[in-house]
């Protein structure tokens, strides 16, 4: 499975939230389809089969990106000396 970018995942989450809000405001065939489409997109992006699971996985994926291991940070050259330091 390809991992979606954080931006794409946030857009999909926002689209799902907007569709749910609109469905709560005025439920009709179009709003129900919008919720289904947004839910399907989230499930595909997260590799899940249920919306609740997709939301959990999306939150986890976004949380993981916020925490970067020091070992994965790019080395940076400081102006004071030529030794590499972790940013």
TrEMBL record:
Q: Name one Pfam family in it.
A: DUF5133
Q: Which InterPro entries match?
A: DUF5133 (IPR033457)
List the protein's name: DUF5133 domain-containing protein
Biological source species: Streptomyces atroolivaceus
Q: Which domain of life is it from?
A: Bacteria
């Amino acid at each position: 499975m390809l991992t979606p970018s954080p931006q794409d995942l946030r857009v999909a989450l926002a689209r799902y939230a907007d569709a749910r809000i609109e469905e709560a405001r005025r439920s009709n065939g179009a709003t129900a389809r919008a919720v289904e489409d947004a839910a399907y997109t989230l499930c595909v992006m997260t590799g899940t089969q249920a919306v609740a699971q997709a939301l959990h996985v999306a939150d986890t994926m976004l949380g993981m990106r916020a925490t970067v291991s020091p070992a994965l940070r790019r080395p940076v050259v400081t102006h004071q000396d030529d030794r590499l330091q972790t940013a």
